[in-house]
Amino acid sequence: MIKICHLYPELLNLYGDRGNIIAFVRRCQWRGVDVTTREANLGDPVDFSDTDFLFLGGGSDREQDLIAGDIKRRRAELRSAIENGLVVLAICGGYQLLGQYYRTGDGRVIPGLGLLDFYTEAGGKRLLGNVVIEVMLDGALVRVYGFENHSGRTFLGETEPLGKVLAGNGNNGCDGWEGARYKNVFCSYLHGPLLPKNAGLTDHLIALALKRRGLDLPLIPLDDRFEKRACKVLQDRLL
Amino acid sequence: MPSVKTAKVCYITGGTAPIKRIMAIAAGKFVCWLSRLSGNQGSSLPGLVARRICPGILVELAAQVHRGVVMITGTNGKTTTGNMIAGVLLAAGYKVINNREGANLITGVTASFVRKSSLWGKIDCDYAVLEVDEASFPGVTAEVRPQIVVLTNFFRDQLDRYWEVDKIVGLINTALQKLPGTRLVLNADDPLAAQFREKTGLSCTFYGLGGFERRSGTGDRVREARFCPFCGAPLVYDNFYYSQLGIYKCSGCPFVRPEAQVEATEIVLGPSSTTSMVVYDHSRVLLTVPAHGLHNLYNALAAFSAGSALKIGIESIVRALENYVPVSGRMEAFIYHGKPVYLNLVKNPAGFNEGLAALLNGKERSKDVLLAINDLDADGRDISWLWDVDFEVLAETGRLSFFCTGRRGEEMALRLKYAGISTDRIGLSRDMRAAIRKALAGTGEKVYLYTTYTALWPARKILSRMAVKGNYDQNLPSLS
Asked: Is the peptide bond before A193 cis (omega within 30 degrees of 0)?
C-alpha cells in the first residue's frame, strides 16, 4: 500500500496540478499496487514518516503567503522524512518554497524552508512556454516534456539540477538547468502537468516509493502508446 | 499582462482631422470586406487598422451613442449574455451596436463601431452592447464610458495569458474605481463577482438561482473562491451549483451571498431549453430560454437584470429572451442524417464541465463525442487546464465513444485515458475532417463536438458541409 499526501490541494492547485496525482495513482492501480490519497490542508495533521509520496503544487502569491506559516511548523518533521528517503515532487511555487529564500521585486526577502540549497529572485518577464529537458533516471538519459510559466528565477547552490534544458527556459533562462534534485526530492517548474506525459519519471517515483517500503522489484511494464504520442507532438515541434 | 495603451486622444484639440478619420474608417471597412471575401471571420483586424491610422477613433465613434453603453465582462458567458442583451434592446425597438461574434479586445470593439459608422464617421445608434475581454477592460473603459457593467463570473481561464483569477479581479476593480455612477449587474452566486459591491461602492443589481439541487457530477473540483475575498476565511456553502457558484457565507466575517433582485426558482433543465420562474420586484414570470444548462440560465438572468435596469418592460424582455438564437459554437444545433449534432466552444474548466454535463443527461443509449484541442495563442498555449476538467465522471458511463483531434489531440486522448476511459473507446486523428466524419458516422444517437477557440471555425466549416443547421428537438411534432 502506497500512501500519497497532497499537501495544500485547496491552495496550491494551479495549472492542472491534480493531474500529477491522477497519473501517480493510475499507474499504481494499473499494476495492482494499492494506493491511498490524503489531502492535507492548513492545520491538518500529517505524519510525513508514514507517507510514501508527497506532492506540492503551484499557487498564486496570496496563497503562498497563507501556507508559509503553516509549513514552517512542519519543517523539522519534513526534513527528517526527506533525509530518510521520502519521495517528494514539488512544482513551481511548491518548488520555490523548499529553497533558502525568495527575493521579491522590491528587495524583500521571504525565507523558504531551506531544505534544499537554492534561492529564487523575482524576475521581470515571465518565462513561459513548452519545455523539453533531459533527466538522468537509473543511469539512462530520459527526455521530459512540460510547460513552464514562472516569473521567479531560481539559482542552484549545492543542490543538483533535475535536468538539462533542451528547449525552453528552465530555472532562470540563463544557466541551462531545470529543477532541483536531492535524495528522493524532485523539484521542477514543469507542469502541463508533469507526470501524465512523462511515464518514465512517474514510474521512477513509484519505484522509489516502493523501494522505501522494501519492495525492490522491477515495475510491470504498461502500454504507454498514448503517453509517447503526446510527447512526440512536443518533440517534433521543439527539437 | 498585456500592456494597456490609452489612445492619444485627438478629440481634446477639436477632433481628428476629418481626412484622417475618413481614411481610418475607409481602411477599416475595406479590411472588413476583404476578410469576409476570403471567408475569414477576421473581426478585430479592421479595428487594428483603423486605430493605427487614427488612435482616437473609438473615443470619437463611441461618444455618439445616444442612450448608453452596456459592457459585459467576466470569464464565461460574455458572448451569450451580450447577444441576449442586444436582443432585448433590439426587440424594444432600439438601434444597437454589438460585437456579436465575440471579438472582445479593444481592436474588436473598435471594429464593431467602424462597421456601423458612415464613411464620414457618423454613428446612429441608441445603445452599444459590448462584451469586453477581462484584461482589456481597463483599456476599453479608458476610451468608452459604460452606463452598465455586467460581471458574469470569474473562473480560471488561459493561465498563460491571464495568470491567476486574483489578478484579473484586481485589474477590473481598479478600472471600476475610475467609473463612478456606473451601475453593476452582478452574479450573486459567484463570491468573486458579488464582492464588487463592497469593493467599488457602486449601485448594483444582483441575479442568481434560488433553490436548485444539482444532480450531475461535473464541476465539483476546481473552485476558485474557497476563501473569502475579504478576510481569507473559508466560505461555507448551503447550496452549491458548479465551480464556486452557490449559496455561500463567510465563516470569518459578515460577507454573505447577497439577496438577488432577479432570482430564478423552480428550474427545469431540458435537453435544449431551460425553464424557470423568475422572481423580481415582488412579481413572478415564467421564462423559457432556448439554450441548455444552468450557465445559460445565468446568462439570461444577467440580460433580464440589465434590461430591467434600462427600464425595458418585463414582457418585452421575456419575449426577446425566449426568441434568443445561440451564436456559433454555443451548443449550436445541426442535424446529420436525422441525428442531432451539437457544436460547443470550450475555453476553460468551468465551461468544459458545464458542456460535459450534457453528455450525462438524456436517455440515449450512446453518444459520439469529438474533442478538438488547439494550443495557439487564442486557445491558451498551456493546455494543462484539461487536467482540471472532470472527465472522470464520463468513465462511469460506458456509452460514449471519443474522437480526439487538433494540435494537441494527443494530450486530450491521454487525459481521457487517465480519466479511466478505456483506450479502445478513444480515437485519435491529426486530420480534423476525418475525425469529424468518424464521429458523425458513429453508432451514437447524438453527436457532441467540443472545440477550443481556434478549432471552432474549421470544425464548423467542415460540419456545415456534412450536416444541416437546425434544432432536432424543435423539428419534432408537438405533443400538446
From this structure: yes
Binary contact (B413, A19; C-beta < 8 A): no
Query: Is the ipTM here above 0.90?
Result: yes
| C-alpha–C-alpha distance, residues B359 and B337, integer Å | 20
Q: What is the DSSP letter of A80?
A: H
Secondary structure E strands in B37-121: 68-73, 96-98
Number of domains comprising chain A: 1
A233: nearest CB among B226, B388, B408: B408
> pLDDT tens, B358-389?
888 777 779 999 999 999 988 889 999 999 99
| CATH number of the domain bearing residue A153 | 3.40.50.880
Domains plus CATH for chain B? 64-322 (3.40.1190.10), 330-475 (3.90.190.20)
Please, what's the b/e burial string for B203-232 (b: 16 or more CB within 10 A of its CB; e: otherwise)?
ebbbbbbbebebebbbbebbbbbebbbeee
Cβ within 8 Å of residue A208, ≥6 positions away:
A85, A87, A184
Taking CA atoms, what residue in B is nearest to A42? B234
Q: In Å, how far is B161's CA from the nearest CA of chain A?
A: 10
Which residue in A5, A92, A187, A231 is the catalytic one?
A92
SS3 B408: coil
A-B CB pairs within 8 A amount to: 82
